[in-house]
Amino acid sequence: MDDLDRRLLDQLQRDAGQTLHELGELVGLSASAVQRRITRYRASGLLTREIAVLDAAKLGGMLFVVLVALERESHEHHRRFAERMRGTPEVQQCYELAGRWDYLVVLSTSDMARCRELGDELFQRDDNVQRYETMPVFDAVKTGLAVSLS
Amino acid sequence: MDDLDRRLLDQLQRDAGQTLHELGELVGLSASAVQRRITRYRASGLLTREIAVLDAAKLGGMLFVVLVALERESHEHHRRFAERMRGTPEVQQCYELAGRWDYLVVLSTSDMARCRELGDELFQRDDNVQRYETMPVFDAVKTGLAVSLS
DNA sequence: GTCGTCCACGCAAAAATCTTGCGCTTCGGC
DNA sequence: GCCGAAGCGCAAGATTTTTGCGTGGACGAC
């Protein structure tokens, strides 16, 4: 993991749609060298996948942020909760937290009503959820999954 | 925006690395038809960009969730705050919220110390930030930017 | 009904990109 | 100094993307 890797990965996090040649010019490598590095990232699991980013606003959808505190915190309870989050398509993101709350969940739904339904289904009905707080998102100021490569 | 579009976009949100032919098989179109639709998504701004997703854990980085409440809520104050978030590379995501908190910020840093520095720089020093609460992320249960296409 | 237009499709050729074999250089261990 | 491993660029070969073209269905005007 040298400086070339960092620059390349940083570039890929920003825009993975460029050609190998373009990427090569940006970091100072030939297309084939770039390609071999990317293959290595993929093989090592460092580069998980490539995804298309859609404009949520243009689709008329809404986002909600939900903070969740569990009642009991056993390993099994956590596993079950996580599994449910992973299995629900409207759950865009879910993080297990340290601190006052146990989970942060980001929901992407078509409207408010669907959010309420989901809240009911995922949190209200689960008697291991002690309390949860739902906040609608006014505006997605910045989105992305880019990790700091310092 | 028909059913084919929804299935195609859904697929692209999950994995944009497939060939047009593969995508075509999944939704029942030829490669060229798939391509023409994707070109349309791009032109209309619906498809913003394609990005590589890296495994944060494999890079040894940490994630933090920060909830922020502002002191004064004028348009200008919001604009300034948002601009600062957009301009900070370690700010992975930032959402303006309705409810008890004004912003949710996701930070990606190399370590705890850097998070503290950032918190200081971005929130502590800003006298329009009334209060903020930082929570380290134990585990990224689910990540992505996939929007519900109902 | 039927004509004409529009739009999206599939097919296939052309263009572009990705992949891989090869020879070269660099670097570290012995 | 010599050897092997690792990474590079170049260029040929394989694959994918892009585009031109002809076809067929939907729809409105007549």
- Give the biggest sheet of chain A: 4 strands, antiparallel
CATH hierarchy: architecture of the largest domain in chain A:
2-Layer Sandwich
CATH topology of the largest domain in chain A: Alpha-Beta Plaits
Largest sheet: spatial strand order of chain A: 3-4-2-5
Please, what is the oligomeric state? homodimer
- Helical content of chain A stands at 40-55%
Based on Cα principal axes, name the global outline of chain A: elongated
Domains of chain A, number: 2
The sequence of SSEs of chain A as H and E is HHHEEHEEHE
In DSSP terms (H or I, runs of 4 or more residues), the helix count of chain A works out at 5
Span from first to last CA of chain A?
12 Å
Could you tell me the strand content of chain A as a percent range?
25-35%
